Amino acid sequence: MSSHTRGSSGRADVEMAHFWQEGGGKRMIEELFTDFRSKHPGVEVADQANTIDDHGMLVKSQILREEPPPVFVEWPGQNLAPYQQAGAIRDISDLWEENGWEDVFIEGPRERSKLDGAYYGIPIDIHRMNNLFYHVDLAEEYGVDPARVDSPSEFLEVLSACEDGDLIGMEQPMKNPSDVLQLFANIVIGEFGAETYAGITQGQTRRYESELRQAVELLDAYADLARDDATFVDMVQANGRFMDRESVFFHQGDWMAGSYEDQADFDYGVDWDHAVFPGTEGVFMLSTDALVAAEHADFGEDTRAFLEFMASPPAQQTLNRIKGSIPPREDVDISDYPQILREQFQDFTAASHFPAGHALQITPDAFVEAKIAASEFVTTRDVERTTRGLLAAYE
After folding, report:
1. What does pTM read for this prediction?
2. Of 113, 271, 275, 390, which has the fewest beta carbons less than 10 angstroms from its beta carbon?
3. Residue 105 above 50 pLDDT?
4. Interatomic CA distance for residues 67 and 106, integer angstroms
5. H/E run at residue 350
6. What's the topology of domain 14-127+287-350?
């Protein structure tokens, strides 16, 4: 646990568990905590910084030990349902009412913070998951305009044509099954539409079984163009290879753009650019984080003040500017944000479909089953087995 301010008892007045250990996330937490201390000088505040892979497990184990962090970050939507059903998170509808948050938070993230008509979370960011990043000069060299590639199947041909020695078309991190599912989701949306993805993930699997199988077949064809060691490569490593010009393209969430902004001589619109994943025009595939309060932890004035601070326009302005996301509040000034984030906000306001990634779209149990199917796909490359596994997971 990293402590920013801690009293002699060893226990801070407010503690928050999160999964932002490095880079922009770490800088974001430090700046926010400094700002909070300046506004509440008598309040001791500390954070528990976990890895993203361990975060959920660690928080759940603390809940089981009846020592939960008073505030922790989680994905909202269906992901919060087991916490709520177990009585582990607090209904904070009174905070929403007192602060008039229903009038200022954007509908999508706002509604994903509700369960059974009550608010259990406060949205803090909006990320887009259907981005396709690319090197401008390499795309031009191969005669590709990414914005004019109309579907995942057409993009497959583009990737094959871009292979040249050590250069490949697109980095594909396959170590984490969540990244495999993210590509699969965008293939479904790009090839068959957002309504088909919604139907599949909401249990209408038999109706869309043919489309699901075809999407797995496309995923398999994409995997044929991945590096030989892709199964051992995570998202960060793949992104590093992309920045080192080992691929023309990289498909990932917009949280990656922060590392590009930090890279010397790697300028947006000149050296790198982005388009939507082929076929997903008008779609803003949503990922968002929320702050939740533990039911069996202190919820005094200090914790309430901290949540109110984190939901405020200044804090959300700072948080999203550094983190590389767009604010879920409508009244946050983003005029000094990087150009790509301003463009992402414009795309968000113009989008007609807002499907979420698997973690928000389906129940945690279904997410586990889908990740198992994705892991087995990486190991076996068995299209039929993967199709059956995903059908069972989504049902």
Report:
1. 0.90
2. 271
3. yes
4. 33
5. helix 339-350
6. D-Maltodextrin-Binding Protein; domain 2 (3.40.190)
Backbone angles phi and psi of 49, in degrees to 5: -95, 115
Mean of pLDDT values over 287-308 = 96
Amino acid 10: pLDDT: 52
Strand, helix or coil for residue 26: helix
Domain boundaries, the chain: 14-127+287-350, 131-283+363-394
131-283+363-394 shares the fold of 14-127+287-350: yes
User: Which three-class secondary structure state does DSSP give residue 351?
Assistant: coil
CATH code given to domain 131-283+363-394? 3.40.190.10
DSSP conformation class of 213 = H
CA dihedral 144, 150, 151, 153 (to 10 degrees): -50
